[in-house]
Amino acid sequence: MRCLACGGEMILMKAIEDVTMAVPGFERHSYMCPVCYDTEQRLVFNKHAKERDIGAVPLLTAPPTAPATASYPQPVAQGFLQRALARIRGQ
C-alpha cells in the first residue's frame, strides 16, 4: 500500500479483528510510512479469517398480559362540559 502523503511503501504495523461487525472476517489494519512516518488505518475484509463462535442470542419476549374485559366502565363526568355532554347523551 502506498502512502498518500509521500508515495512511499507503507508497512503494516498492527492487524486487529473487528468484533463490532456482524459478519466475521473484518480487520482493522494500522499502517505506517517509514519515509514520512504518516500513519493510516483501514478496515479490511479477510476472507480467510476463521469463523467466530457467536452464541445463540436469546429472544426477548413480552410479559404475559391479562385478557381484555368485554365491558368497560363509563368514565365519571368531572367538569361542567363533561356533565353537560353526559346529560345530552342521556347518561
Describe this structure in words.
The chain is of the alpha+beta class and 91 residues long. Helix content is 11%, strand content 23%. The chain has a domain at 1-50. It has one helix at 80-89; strands at 11-17, 26-32, 39-45. The chain is elongated and about 90 Å long. It starts with 10 loop residues before the first strand and ends with a helix. The model has no long low-confidence stretch (mean pLDDT 79).
Concise overview:
This protein has 91 residues and is an alpha+beta fold. It has one helix spanning 80-89, and strands at residues 11-17, 26-32, 39-45.
Series of secondary-structure elements, N-terminal to C-terminal: EEEH
Arithmetic mean pLDDT: 79
Helix content: 10-25%
Q: Strands across the major sheet, in which order?
A: 1-2-3
Let me know the number of strands: 3
Q: Sheet bearing the most strands, described?
A: 3 strands, antiparallel
Spans of at least 5 consecutive residues whose pLDDT stays below 50 are none
Beginning-to-end CA distance, first to last residue = 83 Å
Categorize the overall geometry: elongated
Strand content: 15-25%
Q: Please compute the radius of gyration using only Cα atoms.
A: 33 Å
Assembly context of the chains: single chain
Q: If helices are DSSP runs of H or I spanning 4 or more residues, what is the number of helices? A: 1
User: Structural class of the helix and strand makeup?
Assistant: alpha+beta
